[in-house]
Amino acid sequence: MTSFSYTIKEPMGLHARPAGIMAKRLQNETCSVTVCCGTRTANAKGLFSLMRIAVKCGETVTVNIAGENEAALAAELQLFFSENF
User: Fold this and answer.
1) How far apart are CA 76 and CA 55, in angstroms?
2) Is residue 48 within 8 Å of 13, Cβ to Cβ?
3) How many Å apart are CA 38 and CA 50, to the nearest integer?
4) Predicted pLDDT at 83
5) DSSP characters for 50-65?
6) What's the pLDDT tens digit per position in 64-85?
7) Residue 26 and residue 68: Cα distance in Å, rounded?
8) pLDDT digits (tens, 9 = 90+) for 39-61
9) Burial per residue of 3-25, b for 16 or more beta-carbon CB atoms within 10 angstroms, e otherwise
């Protein structure tokens, strides 16, 4: 399993538009991807799951990736988070 942490800088937090883009991108991945914030956990492949954890600006999330090509996917997601959240 590969993981990274990221502190949300976007004033709107982890919001629907980029979260939807990420969930759609991950749909065809064989890896499991979870986003954790404190005790709240979401399957990153589901927009509603991501919205349910309600991550706000200033909170730190941990993204866990497990499966084939997890390192490459982790690098891609780190870049996505830095550009969108």
Assistant:
1) 20
2) no
3) 14
4) 96
5) HHHT-PPTT-EEEEEE
6) 999 999 999 999 999 999 999 9
7) 13
8) 999 999 999 999 999 999 999 99
9) eeebebeeeebbbeebbeebbee
